[in-house]
Design a protein that fits this description.
The protein is about 40% helix and about 15% strand. The protein contains 13 helices and twelve strands. It has a six-stranded parallel beta sheet with strand order 2-1-3-4-5-6, with helices on both faces. Strands 9-8-7-10-11-12 form a six-stranded parallel beta sheet, sandwiched between helices. It comes from Candidatus Daviesbacteria bacterium GW2011_GWC2_40_12. InterPro entries: Glyco_trans_1, Glyco_trans_4-like_N.
């Protein structure tokens, strides 16, 4: 079977984001299949003989998917968060026009692949695609996310001056990530005598950006986060290492006392699996697909309940046996996901598209 895979995300700003991660791993694992030939392209005119075309991303507000499709086409729609939270993602006239074209282009796709059952429900609601043609295929953590030994970890602890105990978050800082809420909880937590030495580590280049003089709606949450850190006097309690490479990120997850995913919503929530695979206990919101990914291995809090999250942090930070139990459960949960499974299920969608 010859598969044409659009690799545009590997040559754009997406390469360092989740879409790039998905495209890169999909390409790597498809190429390992003996019965497949993968043809990489950025323009359809670049390839010949493909039996199926796969676009591994879908942009709601840019016209990236052709309306005319000479070859059976699969599209991956990772989530529809900008439609679920439309107030946080204002769209101009051009964006609305592009969304109309994109929805039109979806109509003659053979199948949509998405990352979770939660995203499948959103696609049904907002993009009006046939339910039987939306296939949820979960992602997986890269195998390099694993438990590391102390000799590997100690240089990272020293380099970033990481304390013995810390709460970790990794990712973006848009409104959906709910980080001002996390800082409110953290402030209350460290006001208690037993937790005054706890630090919060926010991993990601976005946390070092100077955005105060930039007027953009998508930066308002980051501005609020920075303002709360400053107004609460938490500059010395919050560590912001900036961008770290993937090997260092693995070490951060290994060193974290607890990883927290406070998001209002996630289409998948890959950092939860990465944390599990590194043995980190996880506390997560119950937004979107996060309970699908975390299963019984994470502790969940309601998004409107600040005291509930604080109570969970107190329990996990104060109880070594609970942390050990969550770590064991997380490792088992991470083992249920793999890129081999993801690609096997994706190939099955290709076969169905060709035979129908």
């Amino acid at each position: 079977m010859k598969i044409g895979l659009n690799v545009t995300p590997l040559h754009s700003g997406h390469r360092l984001r989740g879409i790039g991660y998905y495209t890169r791993n999909l390409l790597t694992y498809l190429k390992r299949e003996k019965d497949l030939e993968v043809l990489e392209f950025t323009k359809l005119s670049e390839i010949k003989g493909a039996q199926i075309i796969h676009y591994p991303w879908f942009d709601l507000f840019f016209h990236t998917l052709p309306i005319l499709k000479p070859i059976p086409t699969i599209i991956t729609v990772h989530d529809t968060i900008p439609l679920v939270f439309s107030k946080q993602y204002p769209v101009g006239i051009r964006g609305k026009a592009n969304m109309y074209l994109q929805k039109l282009a979806l109509k003659n796709c053979k199948f949509i692949i998405t990352d979770s059952l939660s995203s499948k429900k959103d696609i049904l609601k907002y993009l009006k695609f046939k339910e039987e043609k939306i296939i949820a295929i979960p992602l997986a953590a890269d195998p390099k996310f694993r438990i590391l030994q102390d000799p590997v970890l100690m240089p990272i602890r020293r380099k970033y001056n990481l304390p013995e105990k810390f709460i970790m978050y990794a990712g973006d800082a848009n409104a959906i990530k709910n980080l001002p809420f996390l800082v409110d909880v953290f402030r209350q937590l460290i006001s208690e005598s037993d937790f005054q030495e706890i630090k919060l580590v926010l991993v990601g280049g976005v946390f070092l950006k100077n955005v105060e003089n930039i007027n953009h709606p998508e930066l308002e949450s980051l501005k609020m986060l920075n303002r709360k850190i400053r107004d609460y006097g938490l500059e010395d309690k919050i560590i912001r290492p900036g961008n770290v490479d993937e090997d260092e990120l693995v070490a951060f997850f290994n060193l974290a006392t607890v990883y927290i995913q406070p998001s209002l919503y996630e289409g998948f929530g890959l950092p939860v699996l990465q944390a599990f695979a590194c043995g980190a206990p996880v506390i997560s919101s119950n937004g979107g697909s996060l309970p699908e990914v975390g299963g019984q291995a994470a502790l969940y809090f309601d998004l409107s309940n600040l005291n509930q999250l604080k109570s969970l942090l107190v329990d996990v930070l104060g109880d070594k046996s609970l942390r050990h139990k969550l770590s064991e459960l997380g490792l088992k949960q991470a083992g249920r996901f793999s890129w081999e499974k993801t690609v096997r299920q994706t190939i099955e969608v290709y076969r169905r598209a060709i035979t129908k």
